Structure formats: C-alpha cells, structure tokens
Amino acid sequence: MLALLLDYTIQNVMIGAALLGIVSGVLGSFAVLRRQSLLGDTLSHAALPGICIGFLVAGTRSLPAILIGALATGALAALVVLALTRMTRLKTDASLGIALSTFFALGVVLLTHIQNQGSAAQGGLESFLFGQAAAILRSDIYIMGGIAFAALLLVTLVWKEFKLVTFDAAFARTLGLPVLALETLLTTMIALAVVVGLQMVGVVLMAAMIIAPAVAARQWTDRLGTMVCLSAIFGMVSGVTGALLSATARGLATGPLIVLAVSVIVIVSLLFAPGRGLVFAAFRDAENRRRLHGHRVLAALYRLAAEHNDPAYRTEQKMLDAYFGTGTSGVLKRLQTLGLVTSTSHHPEPTPHWALTAQGIAQAQTDLMIGDTNR
Amino acid sequence: MTGWIAAFFDSPDAMIMLTGALVGIAASLLGTFLVLRGASMLSDAISHSIVFGIVVVWMLTGQASGPVQLIGAALTGLLTVALTEAIAATQRVKADAAIGLVFPALFSIGVLLINLFARDVHIDEHTVLLGEIGFVWLDTYTIAGYLVPQAVIWMGAMAVLNLAFVTLLFKELKLATFDAALASALGFVPAVLSYALLALLSGTAVAAFDAVGAILFIAFVIVPPSAAYLLTDRLSLMLVLGAAIATLSAVCGYWIAVWLNVSISGMMAVMTGVCFVVALACGPRYGLFAQALRRRARHSDNAARTLTVHLFNHEGTDSAREENVATALRDHLHWSEAKAQRVLARSLADGLVTRSGEALLLTPKGRTAAREVLEPWARPERAVGHSNG
Amino acid sequence: MVPQLENGLHEPGLAVHVEDLTVAYHSKPVLWDIDFDIPPGVMAAIVGPNGAGKSTLIKSILNLVKPTAGHVTIYGRPYKRQRRKVGYVPQRSSVDWDFPTTALDVVTMGLYGQLGWLRRPGAAERARAMAALERVGMEAFADRQISQLSGGQQQRVFIARALVQDADVYFLDEPMAGVDATTERAIVKILHALRDAGKTVIVVHHDLQTVRNYFDWMVILNVRVIAQGPVSEVYTTDNLRRAYGGQIALIDADATLEGAD
Predict the structure, then answer these.
(1) Which residues from A are below 8 Å from B107, CB to CB?
(2) Which H or E run includes A105?
(3) What is the DSSP string of B259-325?
(4) What is the pLDDT of residues B6-25, one digit of tens each?
(5) B35, B177, B215, B277: which to substitute to probe chain A, counting the most A Cβ within 10 Å?
(6) In this complex, is the C-beta atom of B79 within 8 Å of any C-beta atom belonging to chain A?
C-alpha cells in the first residue's frame, strides 16, 4: 500500500482527484443553490467542441490550449442558454437541452475530423469523454492547481457578495451590488470547475461532480460556509477514492468510479444526516404522530368530561376506539404511565373505562389553549 | 418497381438517411410534448441511464437488441423518472438537482458493467455515446425477399408506434400538457399518459441507440420540436414541422458528413441545431427578426401613447403650462432630445396631438387613445372625470 | 423649469417624488405617467386592484425595473445616490427559504452594502443585526435556519434586515400578505415606531379594510394614480370605485366600508 502511495503516477492521480473534488464541491454548491444544477450538465457536454478546437489550434494535445477551448465553448453554451431563455418563448429546460445536444454533436463531428486526420498525437482526446486518471501528468497538476487556487481565492474574497446574490439577487441590487457581473462570474466558475474535472471525470459525467457533493453537504448543515467546506471534502473523498480504484483496477473508467463514490455519499447523507436525514425524519414523524395522538385522546376525554360537567367522567374505551377509528389502548396506557389518565370501571359495565387525573385535566387545558393561540 | 425497391434497400446511402430520418421522426413526435411541458431534460436523463438498462438486459439475456431490449429500456426509463421523482418528493433536493443525481449514477453503473463484463461485445463506451449509423446497413433481416437493415425495422416500428400514440391520444395528450388539472378532472389520468410517453421515449432511445448513441439522441428529441415551437402556435402543426425538420436534418447531415468525412450521426444532430438557428432567426411570429420589428413598432406606439397619457393627465390643470409643452418630454419624461422629437413627430402625424404655440394639445383622437389606456374597463361613452391628487 | 438633476437637488423636501413615470414589462406598459409625492415622516399605503402595478412601482423606484419614461427622486436625489437612505423588504416569496442560512445571518446581509468589498461582517455587525432582531421580537430565533420559521417570523426577519440598514425611507412589498393577525399587529407596531422616529414608511398593501387604521397617507393606483394624499381625504368611496372599476368583489368590500361609516 505504501509503495502504491509513493508511486509517481498514483500521486498525480490523487492530487488531481483532490483538486477536482475541492473545486467542483465549492463551485457546485453555488450552482445547486442557484438552481443551476443542470447548467453544469450542459456546460460539461459543451466543453467537448472546445477540447477539439483547442487541440486543432495547438496542433497537439496541449493541456492549456484544450482547457482554454473547453472554458470558451462552455461559457458560450451558458450564454446561449441565457439568450434562448430570455429572448424566445422556450423554457429553460429546452434551452439547456438544445445547447447541450448541439454543442456536443459539434464536438463529436470535430472529434471524428481530428481522428480522420490520422495525426499521431490525437490519441487520448477520447479520454476526455469519461476521464482517464492514469493519463494525468505532473504538469497537468500544476495547471489544475493554478485554476483551483484562483477559483478558491475568488470565492473567499467575494464570499459575502456571492452569498447575497445567490440568496436574494433583487435585494443585492438595491444595495448597489453589480448583480449581473457577479452572476456571470458564478456561472463562469461552473465552467471552470468543469475544466478542472475534464481529465478526471470527463465531460459526460462532470454534471454529477457539480451537483452531488453539494446536495450531500446540504443535508448535514444549515450554514453556507459549512456546506461549502463539507461539499469540498465530499468531492475530494469521492474523487480520490474513484481515481485510486481506477488506477489500481485496470480497465475501469475513472469518471464512473468517482461518480459512484459520490453517489454513495449522497445516499448516506440523504438517509442518515442528523436533522434532515430521511431516517431521522421518519423517527421524528412517528414520535410526533404518537404525541399528537396522545394529545387528541386527552382532548377528547377533556371535552367529554366538560360536556358532562364531571371532571371525573368515565369514558368507555370502545367509544374512544370508534371515535378515532383505531385502537387507543396503547395511547391510553402511555398516558396512564405519564399519570394523565387513570383506568376505572363503570358498574355494571364490564368494559374498561378511563378518567382524567387532575394532572391530565391541567395538561389538556394547556394543550387546548396553545392550540387556540396558534390558530 | 421491385428492382427499384431492391436498389433502395441495397443502397447504404438511402438506408443511413432513412434510419436517421426515422430516429428523428420518432424522437421529435414525443419530444414535442416534453418541450411543451418543460420536461426536456428528462430525455437527457433517460438517454443516459438507458445504458444501464441495455447492459443489464444484455447480461441477463445475451441480446443486444430486439423486443427484450425495448422492454428493458422502457423499464429503465421509468425507473429513472420514478427515482428522480422520489428524490424530489423528499423535499431535501430540488427537482433539477434530483435529475442530475440519478442519471449519472445509473450511467456510471452501466459503463462500469461494460468495462467489467462486456468488453469484447459491440456495446462499448464509444458506441454508447456516439452511435455508429454508418454501419446500420450491415445487419439485415430478410423481409419479402428484400434485405432490410435491422435498424430500419426497429426504428420504423418505433416511429409507427409513436405516431399511433400521438394521433390516437392527440386530444388527451394536448389537454394533459396544457391543463393537467382539467385533464384529471375529466378522467384522463395525465400521470399514466406521462409515464406512457416516457416509456415510449425510452424504447425509442434504445432502438435509436446503435445508430446515434445516447447523447445525440437528445438532439433529435429536443431541438426539432423547439424549432417548430418557434414557427407555429398549433400543436398538430408543431408535430408535423418537428418531424419535417428532423428528416431534413438527417438528409442534409448525411451528405455534409460524407462530404467532410466526419461523424454522420454527429452531423445530423448539428444540422438540427442549424435548422433551429434558422427558425430562431426567421420564424414568422417568434423569430428574433420578427420580434425585433414588432418590438420597435410597439415601442414607438407606446411612446406615442405615453405622450397622450401625459398630456391627458395634466390637461386643464395648473401644471399644464409646464407639463404640456415640447420641452417637458425631455425634462419630465426624461427622454433624449432625439427620442422626444421622434415621438412628437409621429404623434403629430398620427393626429393624436396638435401644437398651439408652445403648448401641446390633445386631439379628440388622442384623448380617446389616452382614455383607452387609463380606463380599459370603462365603456367609451362613460365619461369619467379625472383628478390627480 | 425643472433644474438639472445631476447638479442639484430636485424636490429635496419630499421623501419620494415620482414624476411622469411609465414602466413597461416585456414592452407592455403596466404603469402610465405616474405622478405622486410622499412627504417625510408618513406611513403610506400603496393600494390598488391586482395587476394595478403596485409591486412594479416599488421595483421601478428602486431601479430593479427600468422605467421607459419619467424619473424618481428620494430626498431630492436619484435613487442611485441615495441607496444608504433606503431600506427594502421584498415579497416573502421572492427567495428560497431552504437556503442554508440563519435568521441572524439574513439580517446581517442588510449591512453588506455599507461594509463594502472584501470586508467581512464582524462582531460589531452581528451585534447590530442582533439588535434589529430584538426590535422585531425575533432574538430567540437568531440561530434558526430560515425555513424553520413561520411565515410571519420570516416576514419579521426580512423587516429586521431592512431595519439594520438604518434607512430614512422604507419600502415594503406586501409585508402583511399571508401572516396571521398577531404578526400583522406586531409588524404594524414596528412600522409605526419607525414613522414616529421620523422615518418614511411606504407599504404595498392589499387589504382595504385596514388602511384607515394603519396608515396616514395613501396612493391609490390602477395603471395610473387615481388619488393620493392623507388617508382622511383620499379614502372615499368614489376614489376606490374608480380604482377598482369593474372588480365587483372589491366594490362590495367598499360598500361594506361605506356602511361602517
């Protein structure tokens, strides 16, 4: 294992995957909160023609040229989506789909064009489709690191402005913030995240890296700062896990492994995060339902007693069962252990009856009063 | 005649174009309803996750195409949509993010299964994404003595099925798309219709898969109907135009791809984009050019009406001497000198306003115009006094 | 003649001065040639039927919607130069309440404009935000995530965010929509306290019944200004009928008010 970690390629892969996870986690948080999740999908597919153009212009598989190309066509696609939504009667989803599919198609055309040129250097362009961690060089890491550093620095410096624009753009404008510029910047940064992830995850699955870490992180916290940090950590963990698996188990594509890793984190978060997790919520709901039922049974006993003008009025359990349409013995027993009701009999009837205790009357009265003011 | 038909089926050119056109028609018929409903990106989700279904069915049955695959695909498509809806229903995740969580996961599993178990079979990652329409004429069935490509048979079947679906259920689909609440009140069960639509879409995706691949299929689902949507307001016409645009794209795309020696299916999808751009620019009502003309006309119209309303509001008040003069257009309405002159010239020419020395006066026609704006609810004969403070 | 705005003050004695304002949405005008003034230190209601352009009016005063004609001044200067003097409470439905942020954090956002670029809110800002939360009686909920607040509590957080701006003129867009009677009374009390401190409070209001109890100034709007001035003078059956025109249900509401007179 140690030998594995010391391996030069593996080091590159791990650093690259970590960078990818951090950048997409941080920038993806804003995309998800701004309801631009699927824009990430469009931008990443739209990077394909840029990759090819970068290759054609540079004449070789030069990473800077390819990344600049990817950034350019990604940003152009974002612009197309915005323009179509603003200027036509098409809805956002159609605009996203049009940009995604036509840009990608153009990428495919360019890809085959490059392949048909028979250039020896064309090998590896297709690795941008699904990512190929093992192909990452140290020089690539420096470029990715540079982009990641710039993006994170920007987010740190413009943090409160980004936060306000994401939460309430109209209010931000009344404060005099350049909202359009900030929004453009945030969207461009999704394209940046895509660019960083190209070699690792590939254009097809990059959308997941933008959306999934942020969605998972949101379940664990109610603070934006914590969410962004957690999202970066989740992105990093899944990136490194997937990349390591791919580098060691030959023949498994890197992108899908990373996406699976992050999907597992999402599932765990959705189910088990304290507070928002579905399992916790289910427990809480069951508890609430039980308590509510207790309240309602207590209230029913109280009303019956009030109607009969008898605080010690004995109510037949069967009647309560019929009234609530369900068995009430469990609830009544629980109320009894709480000292709110007491089990009695009512001669000559043999069936169980229940009466309120003094404590039960007081409890029912407070419950009913709170219910009134809440209305 | 028979010779002609045989020649047709023997011609790779014709078969490739026919396959492309059938994919386009089958996809755009269904895509029309997705676009109108605002659910276009479901096609993105379905066409990706279908890969999962194809691999699983292949592993279970050993068949890479045919009816089993179509059914498997329909189920995968429904699984995708159901999972997406289930995640969104937890209210922990927004609907758009839910789509983006489900299909990458299913797609990833599909690709990894290919990596692990299906490396030597013809389903590889490359085909999955891009398709290989250039080779559709290689695999054929013999029908009535003719060698017909399998892809043509399956795509033809899906196209006919989809056509039957949208024509037979035309009014139900129309109602469910525009007013789901009313549709369910009338007992049409829009949810069932919607699932049927998505199941058909999944089946079409699988049938189209070998030819155009997962992602280019999305172009055929979304782009032609979107282009048609910019050309017409009628649903029936939108369906026809969408299919026509898809066919045109397939034919043109083929010849251009051959000419440039690039991916045929890729070029077909690019052509849908080109058709869209043409519709976007030149659509008679919703095209950018028509819109710009209309907007200019309306701006000029609105400016003239703004002037009449302004004069009307100050007519007969103390401030009229300051407000109802030409310079007020600049000082009070904050128009540029050029705009003020343009609007005034037009209003004078249209007989809305007359000049009396410095003062601008409303003509009866101008007064009616102002009143129409301010009191749209009032009958013309109901004279209402106006005060302003 | 009107003096040049860029050089000097235009109607500096008025909190808000709106002159010949025409506003269009998608090149279809919704407000036509609006003229009105609001003096300092009043609590003013902007009322009118649905679609009368009430929210659009506030948005165009705050430059969120660009007018096609006319202009607005706040204490004699265009809004752009008076941002610090203005506080804004948008409609509650305008934001995503599931956003990962707390009540205190939302209120702190009101100070972002004054903080300027690069500076982070610190202890002083948090203290001011906390004080604003106390003024609306929400200090106990400072650390709550905002979706865990009731509608009325969310509205109060929004008002606290405007309070912390320490403005002279406050614009509120339907603050009483969808809140319970207790919250409504609490909000009105806060707004009255602001007015009594000399601030100007301008509220888009939908409930004609309460106008006379809550407000001392009103602008009746329907595509244009139907009437404006002190509530005691402007709140007449005739004015309301002209504003609400053929909207029968509202004419009925008006009739019941008339009966109450």
Answers:
(1) 204-205, 256, 259
(2) helix A92-116
(3) HHT--HHHHHHHHHHHHHHHHHHH-TTTSHHHHHHHHHHHHHHHHHHHHHHHHHHHTTSTTHHHHSB
(4) 777 778 888 889 999 999 99
(5) B215
(6) no
- CA–CA gap between residue B358 and residue B72 (Å, rounded): 80
Tell me, what's the pLDDT at C111? 92
Answer whether C225's CB lies under 8 Å from B312's CB: no
Round to whole Å and give the CA distance between C171 and C178.
Answer: 18
Tens-level pLDDT at each residue, chain A (375 residues): 566 666 777 888 888 889 999 999 999 999 999 988 899 899 999 999 999 999 999 888 788 898 999 999 999 999 999 999 988 889 999 999 999 999 999 998 998 888 887 655 555 677 788 777 777 888 888 988 998 999 999 999 999 999 999 999 999 999 989 999 999 999 888 888 888 888 888 888 888 999 999 999 999 999 999 999 999 999 999 999 988 888 777 778 888 999 999 999 999 999 998 888 888 888 888 877 777 678 888 888 888 888 888 888 888 887 888 777 777 777 888 888 888 888 887 777 777 888 888 888 888 887 776 544 443
Q: How far apart are CA A11 and CA A4, in angstroms?
A: 9
Fold of A2-273: ABC transporter involved in vitamin B12 uptake, BtuC (1.10.3470)
The token pair that represents A82 in the structure block: 């915005």
CA distances (Å), origin B195, targets A159, A356, B41: 43, 53, 15
pLDDT computed for residue A372 by the predictor: 46
Could you tell me if A135 and A199 are in contact, meaning their C-beta atoms sit under 8 angstroms apart?
A: yes
Are A25 and A232 in contact, with CB atoms under 8 Å apart? yes
Chain-chain contact of A205 with B108 (C-beta, under 8 angstroms): yes
Domain boundaries, chain A: 2-273, 280-374
Whole-complex ipTM: 0.86
CB A344 within 8 A of CB A336: no
What is the third-level CATH fold of A280-374?
Arc Repressor Mutant, subunit A (1.10.10)
**DSSP tag of C164:** T
For residues B190 and B183, is the Cβ–Cβ distance under 8 A? yes
A partners (3+ CB pairs within 8 A) are B, C
CB contact under 8 A, A88 and B221: no
Parallel, antiparallel, or unpaired: how do β-strands C224-230 and C217-222 relate?
A: antiparallel
Structural tokens at position A145: 């690191």
Q: Is the CB of A33 inside 8 Å of chain C's CB atoms?
A: yes
**Distance of alpha carbon B321 from alpha carbon C34, whole angstroms:** 18
DSSP three-state, residue B118 = coil
Tokens 């592993």, residue located:
B59
Q: Please say whether the beta carbons of B306 and C33 come within 8 A.
A: yes
Cβ atoms within 10 Å of A35's Cβ, excluding its own? 15
Tell me the C-alpha distance between A32 and A211, whole Å.
Answer: 6
Torsion angle of alpha carbons A163, A166, A168, A172, nearest 10°?
Answer: 60
User: Subunits that touch chain B (at least 3 Cβ pairs < 8 angstroms)?
Assistant: A, C
Judge whether C228 and C234 are in contact, CB under 8 Å.
yes
Residues B3 and B135 sit within 8 Å (Cβ to Cβ): no
Would you call A38 and B100 a contact, using CB atoms and an 8 Å cutoff? yes
Q: What is the pTM of this model?
A: 0.83
| Residues from chain A contacting residue B288 (CB–CB below 8 Å) | 87-88
Distance of alpha carbon B86 from alpha carbon B89, whole angstroms: 5
- Could you tell me if residue A61 is left (phi over 0), alpha (psi between -120 and 50 degrees) or otherwise beta? beta
CB of B267 less than 8 A from some CB of A: yes
List CB contacts (< 8 A) between A373 and chain C. Answer: 182
Three-class SS state of B149: strand
Q: Which residues pair with C16 in a beta bridge?
A: C38, C74
Q: Between residues A264 and B329, which one has the greater pLDDT?
A: A264
Q: Which two tokens stand for residue C195?
A: 């007015």
